[in-house]
Write a structure and sequence with these properties.
Blueprint lengths: L1 H17 L1 H7 L1 H29 L5 E5 L12 H4 L6 H10 L3 E9 L12 E3 L2 E3 L3 E5 L3 H5 L3 E4 L4 H5 L4 E4 L1 H7 L10 E4 L2 E9 L12 E5 H7 L5 E8 L4 H16 L10 E4 H44 L1 H9 L4 H37 L9 H27 L3 H6 L2
Parallel strand pairs: 5-10, 7-9
Antiparallel strand pairs: 1-11, 1-12, 2-5, 2-11, 3-4, 3-8, 6-9, 7-10, 8-9
Length: 416
């Protein structure tokens, strides 16, 4: 049995070598389908690792609250969500007073939604600048609640917050942009949005996949209010006590609904999310994208399969006399089927292997040229690519193989 398999495999490889160009054109569809599966699959896997590690970095007991649900919003916000009034200081105080399952709450204030995470403000030091930045005012306990660490200096304290000191903590990407030659940022005076601040600390690079930028620029909460009295937008995060996550979410929801005057039958005028809920949103989106990828890859595989079938039918016609000779000297129908199926599988599997190599190369180029777009080749994509490509060969090669096996040896030997 093993000898027959080895012989069929060798015959298949020899046939592919004899018709290199034809074989290459035949497997093009399988190659494109596999490359598509590998490339997009690697991007989705890399992004999934990035999102999961980044959100897990905030801690599994952290709750995020904003005027609409933090996370991923496919299709944008509804008109009702856009018109929601901001979370206020009074709302946050109500949560602090009523959430007994919360062990700590930190708040951030900023001038508007467009300035939160996509700010056009700039930080400057002499002739160097960093833009855009995420410029917010935060309470002194932010690093503890959000699990952030500093690589240099310290975070501002309650005294500096109460006295509205002009101190600032900057992200590591901002520090590298302002001090490109490795100078110590702590103690330097920088300009943020045209105002001078003394740097007291630098956030450490977050332990996430890829070379993600940390463009955070934070000043004390009260300092921000003093400099930007018109600022009304608030975001806050709460750290739940161990084992009391659901109780903390319920208490936060109740406190906010009461303080914001939400009617008993009205929906929440705010959004609550956790790391797990945001990860779940991302997985739902990537599942839909993955389905589209499968459809696109299937089209390529289908085209490749049809090409394989056509070429194998041509091959059967070209080798009619060979088939007659083999049957005349004792080859059975299953031997003929195995021979032609082996050729079809070798063709499509070669397309799959080339596609995997091409997908891996694309993933490598993405990581080199676009470091902010993470890419990681998943094992499931490799296995799927090989399995499906070989399966295409079996499915589309079966009809030509059966046709070859049914040829009458006498008629086949007479074929010119």
């Amino acid at each position: 049995m093993a000898a027959h398999f080895s012989e069929n495999l060798q015959l298949a490889v020899d046939t592919v070598r004899q018709h290199k160009l034809r074989s290459l054109l035949t497997i093009l569809g399988v190659f494109v389908g596999t490359v598509t599966l590998m490339a997009i699959g690697s991007i989705l896997t890399g992004m999934n690792n990035l999102v999961v590690q980044q959100l897990r970095g905030f801690g599994t007991d952290t709750i995020f609250v904003y005027k609409f649900t933090p996370g991923i919003h496919v299709g944008g916000l509804t008109r009702a969500e856009r018109l929601r009034k901001p979370i206020s200081q009074a709302n946050i105080r109500a949560v602090e007073e009523q959430c007994t399952a919360c062990q700590a709450i930190t708040a951030q204030v900023f001038t508007g939604f467009t300035n939160y995470g996509t700010s056009s403000d700039a930080a400057q030091y002499h002739n160097h600048d960093a833009t855009p930045i995420q410029f917010t005012g935060a309470t002194p306990n932010a690093p503890q609640v959000l699990n952030r660490t500093l690589s240099a200096g310290r975070y501002f304290n309650q005294f500096e917050n109460e006295h509205r000191e002009r101190v600032v903590v900057i992200g590591d990407s901002v520090a590298k942009a302002l001090f490109p030659h490795g100078g110590n940022a702590v103690g330097k005076t920088i300009l943020v949005d045209g105002l001078d601040f003394r740097v007291v600390g630098v956030f450490a690079q977050q332990k996430i996949t890829g070379n993600r930028q940390n463009l955070t620029v934070q000043i004390p909460y009260n300092t921000y209010h003093k400099l930007y009295p018109e600022a009304r937008e608030h975001f806050f995060a709460a750290a739940a006590k161990p084992g009391e996550m659901s109780e903390a979410i319920g208490q936060i929801r109740g406190a906010l609904r009461r303080s914001r005057g939400d009617g008993w039958n009205a929906p929440d005028s705010f959004g609550i999310a956790t790391a797990d809920s945001i990860i779940g949103q991302f997985h739902d989106i990537t599942a839909e994208i993955a389905l589209v990828i499968v459809v696109i890859a299937s089209i390529g595989m289908l085209i490749g399969g049809v090409g394989v079938m056509n070429i194998m039918l041509v091959s059967v016609t070209e080798r009619t006399r060979e088939i007659g000779v083999r049957k005349a000297i004792g080859a059975r129908r299953r031997d003929i089927i195995a021979q032609f199926l082996s050729e079809a599988v070798v063709l499509t599997a070669a397309g799959g292997v080339l596609g995997i190599a091409g997908g891996w190369l694309i993933s490598l180029l993405i990581n080199v040229l676009l470091p902010n777009l993470p890419s990681s080749v998943p094992l499931w994509a490799v296995i799927t690519g090989l399995t499906v490509s070989a399966g295409v060969g079996v499915f589309f090669g079966l009809a030509p193989a059966v046709k070859a096996s049914r040829l009458d040896p006498v008629e086949a030997l007479r074929y010119e």
